[in-house]
Amino acid sequence: MTWPKISIVTPSFNQERFLEETILSIHRQNYPGLEHIIIDGGSNDESVEIIQKYASRLAYWVSEPDGGQTDALIKGFSKASGEILAWLNSDDLYEPHTLWEVADWFRNHPEDEFIYGDALWIDIQGRPIKPKKEIPFNWFIWLYDYNYIPQPSAFWRRGLYERVGGLDRSFDLAMDADLWARFAEVCFPKHVRRIWSRMRFYPEQKNQRLREKSNEEDRIIRQRYVRRNPPTARCIKRVAAKLLRIGWKLCTGSF
What we know:
Layout: E1 6-12, H1 16-27, E2 34-40, H2 47-53, E3 60-63, H3 69-79, E4 84-87, E5 93-94, H4 98-108, E6 114-122, E7 128-132, H5 139-144, E8 154-157, H6 158-164, H7 175-186, E9 190-200, H8 206-209, H9 211-226, H10 231-251
Parallel strand pairs: 1-2, 1-4, 2-3, 6-9
Antiparallel strand pairs: 4-8, 5-9, 6-7, 6-8
């Protein structure tokens, strides 16, 4: 039985307290078709020593100044050769079964190009906070409520990534939402009700520190699709999308 190659890119910068745990969450799965790439932005902590410790298990790694997270991801994916692509930030984790389940899903569902699972929020010490159970993809809800696809639980086929032109460097925080939106323009995102990742939540987290900028990038993405709607119509649709999402989550036991 041949397992598809999965390329995981890990962007990192000064994340010595989390990086090794992230690396181990990938490699301890012993997935035979793994290609792991680490792009470090020139860390001045102990990150490089940690990476070097696992260098023999990496397909590629580098530590040098870059243009930020999105630039690092683009650099990493340019080195990737897998059929399936994803990224795992250096403060997040995979569940022990994730890569096997993702590979099995893509093998058994050749029509699916972009899939996402559920996640578990954890604190800075790795202790569970609460599960992030999601609903199937709905463009109206995603567009008018918020980007509910958990980034570390998302996987896609290489052909799809290439077809939409990959990540956009102009987004520093909402690069995932931008990519998901462009994916959704050409294929249907499939939700798999399995917890595939653990997402760390803490005050120093990039999206927490730069929330205002993240919200502005998110607004820019959504304006591509809703700018022709009058403000009153957008407001009504936002309320409707939120209520629909809440109702859907209640009906499916996703809270």
